[in-house]
Amino acid sequence: MAEKTIDLRPVKKIVAGYGNDKDSNLIAALQQTQDEYGYLPKQALKEVSRLMDVPLTRIFGIVTFYSQFTLIPRGRHAIKICTGTACHVKGVNDVKQKVKDQLNVVEGETTADYQFTLETVACIGTCFLAPVMMVDDRYFGKLTTDTVTDIVDRYTGDNA
Ligand code: FES
Fold this sequence. Notes:
It is a single chain. The protein is α+β, with helices and mostly antiparallel strands. It has helices at 9-16, 26-37, 42-52, 56-65, 85-89, 92-103, 145-154; strands at 77-82, 116-121, 133-135, 138-140. It has a four-stranded mixed sheet, covered by helices on one side. Strand 3 and strand 4 form a beta hairpin. The longest helix is centred in the first third of the chain and has 12 residues, at 26-37. Bound molecules: FE2/S2 (inorganic) cluster. The site of FE2/S2 (inorganic) cluster has 12 residues, from helix 5.
């Protein structure tokens, strides 16, 4: 399926912000581009390549090497469910299954409406709140299969 045309003005602005020292700022520019679009659209990468005079193959090499970059559109909200030992012991698997059923996705997937991307992560350092998940930058702890549904609901549609 063809990628829809995107507005490339933000890329021009980002690259222009790096003045002449473009090559050493390539990763920062790519990060900023991803922040702008939520992922790295191919058209944006081509534009970065053109404006920064860096071969597209090199840019692809970078964005596929570093796990912080994604070429796939992400959901508006990132749900990260901790599957570390403490959360596992406290029943995170049931919580995770509930979210998967609620959103109809598996780990690593984005919902069809691009509202949510579901990920699992190792210990996020708040074991005393196990089982824990993050939605964007917020932590939610002592989750149950009931409370997790309510939390996800809060982020559905335009509520959040
Ligand atoms: S194991 Fe989940 S926060 Fe530590």
